[in-house]
Design brief:
Blueprint (H helix, E strand, L loop, with lengths): L1 H18 L19 H4 L5 E5 L6 H10 L9 E6 L4 H7 L5 E5 L16 H6 L4 E4 L2 H6 L4 H13 L3 E6 L3 H5 L3 H13 L13 E4 L13 H18 L2 H4 L3 E5 L7 H5 L6 E4 L6 H20 L1
Parallel strand pairs: 1-2, 1-8, 2-3, 3-4, 4-5, 5-6, 6-7, 7-8
The structure holds 2-phosphoglycolic acid.
Length: 303
């Protein structure tokens, strides 16, 4: 019955899109603050707060982080730390919370073989990893990872039951030129292009909207800007899949999130959590972001 509903929804949307070939699909159909969401749909998505440690920490600081990382409130929230590969076994050994997930920041989408310096998904799984970041702007821009490679990584992560955090985001110039929505749509749709049927549970796909101008810059997107972009992404997911599937995919915001701005951003209905860089290196700040997000999402859901 559910499958039939999805197929009908998809057909209706496709037909409507084909009838309307104007540029309207490049603009969000709703204003910031409103969305496809209803409290009912919203309640289906478990908030997720993920740390992206990038190239930071050593085994000693990773161990201290783990002993300082005490969450008072983690009811109904998923937590994840994406650490450098070499620190993953250290974190797995020092993990004090069974539901804390570990993630990698990169992998190579092949089974095994002559790929000097790379790690495959089996190795990550062996080290206790359940999630991978894919398409982070630093991988795209500093290491030249292109759309084709990223689409292959996303499909492979999904097939291997890893939780992918697929990142998309515009540069400052693209935003100033009014190209934000076009960029987001292209990155999203090319990334999803290699996904095969049967699709995974929508809970097993996470998209992170990370405006490049906000990463590590101290400049955060306003809550309205973030909501507008994230709700646009959800609409494109609905075009690609179906409303109900899109409404179960979690979309995170990333870019200078900290313990001071987390609750304002988390109050927005389409923002399902965060990918946190700098502020995640400090166990107290990271726990505060998680606890505020958990509390805020419970409040939004109840009201
Ligand atoms: P930031 O990094 O929180 O330091 O801006 C976020 C990210 O790059 O994922």
């Amino acid at each position: 019955m559910n499958d039939l509903r999805k197929v009908i929804e998809q057909l209706v949307r496709q037909t409507l899109l084909e009838m309307n070939h104007s540029e309207t699909d490049l603009k969000p159909m709703v204003h910031a603050g409103t969305s496809l969401n209803t409290a009912h749909h919203y309640g289906k998505r478990q908030p997720l707060v993920a740390a992206n440690w990038k190239m930071n920490q050593l085994s000693g600081t990773a161990r201290s982080f783990m002993s300082d990382f005490q969450l008072r409130d983690r009811k109904n929230i998923q937590t994840l730390i994406c650490a450098p590969h070499i620190l993953l076994p250290v974190l797995a050994a020092g993990k004090n919370q069974p539901d804390l997930m570990l993630g990698a920041q990169n992998f190579y989408p092949e089974q095994s073989g002559a790929f000097t310096g790379e790690h495959n998904l089996d190795m990550l799984s062996d080290a206790g990893v359940q999630s991978v970041i894919i398409g982070h702007s630093e991988r795209r821009n500093l290491f030249g990872e292109g759309d084709e490679l990223l689409a292959k990584k996303l499909a492979m992560a999904v097939e291997n039951k890893f939780l992918p955090i697929f990142c998309i985001g515009e540069t400052l110039k693209e935003r100033q030129d009014g190209a934000t929505f076009r960029v987001l749509r292209n990155q999203l749709l090319t990334g999803l292009s290699s996904l095969k049927n049967p699709l995974p549970n929508p809970e097993m796909i996470v998209v992170a909207y990370e405006p490049i101008w906000a990463i590590g810059s101290g400049l955060t997107a306003t809550a309205d800007q973030a909501q507008e972009a994230v709700s646009f992404v959800r609409e494109r997911l609905a075009d690609r899949f179906s409303y109900s599937y899109a409404n179960s995919i979690r979309i995170l915001y990333g870019g200078s999130v900290n313990e001071k701005n987390a609750s304002t951003l988390a109050a927005k209905p389409d923002i399902d959590g965060f990918l946190v860089g700098n502020a995640s290196l400090d166990a107290n700040k990271f726990s505060s972001i998680i606890e505020q997000t958990a509390a805020c999402k419970r409040k939004v859901f109840v009201s």
